[in-house]
Amino acid sequence: MSSGENLLRIVMVDDDRDDIFLTKMAFKKFPAPYTFTGLTSGDNFFTHIETNGIESIDLVLLDLNMPVRDGHDVLAELQTYPNFENLTVIIFTTSNRSFDKDISEVLGADAYFVKPATKVEVNEFLRLVSEIVKAPKPI
User: Fold this and answer.
1) What's the CA gap between 56 and 50, in Å, rounded?
2) For residue range 6-31, what is the model confidence (pLDDT) as tens digits?
3) In the chain, how many H helices and how many E strands?
């Protein structure tokens, strides 16, 4: 979580607006205070960083399968930013290919999750995210 604050600042980058909406709704069960910003492209994400600073983000949920600039391209460019190491980047995708997971790890992703399809999977995803960002455990 952001230093000096108890507010987790989440940015989701995904070209599918429905996935952004559903993920935002799922985070209503998250056990810590947060803000959630959904962006529909890598270009929008970098504009957000240029406007607000990379320090305005604690957690990035990054889709891999996006047009123009896919998640691996975004992650590779993100590494060139100062303070990249202060971000938690979770690949959040429909791809369960080991190749995608391996490349994501090499490019500095902190975790890799296939998007949940059931309520149980959503709860497990939120539990694991809370562990990664060291948020309070769900009750």
Assistant:
1) 10
2) 799 999 999 999 999 999 999 998 98
3) 5, 5
CA distances from 36 to 24, 31, 105 (A): 7, 14, 24
Q: CB under 8 Å to 35, separation ≥6 — which residues?
A: 7, 8, 9, 10
How far apart (Å, rounded) are the C-alpha atoms in residues 3 and 55? Answer: 10
First to last CA, the chain: 19
- CATH number of the domain residue 53 falls in: 3.40.50.2300
Q: Residue 137 falls within a domain, yes or no?
A: no
Beta-carbon-side half-sphere exposure of residue 118 (alpha carbons within 13 Å)? 3
Domain count for the chain: 1
**DSSP state at residue 100:** H
How high is the pLDDT of residue 136? 53
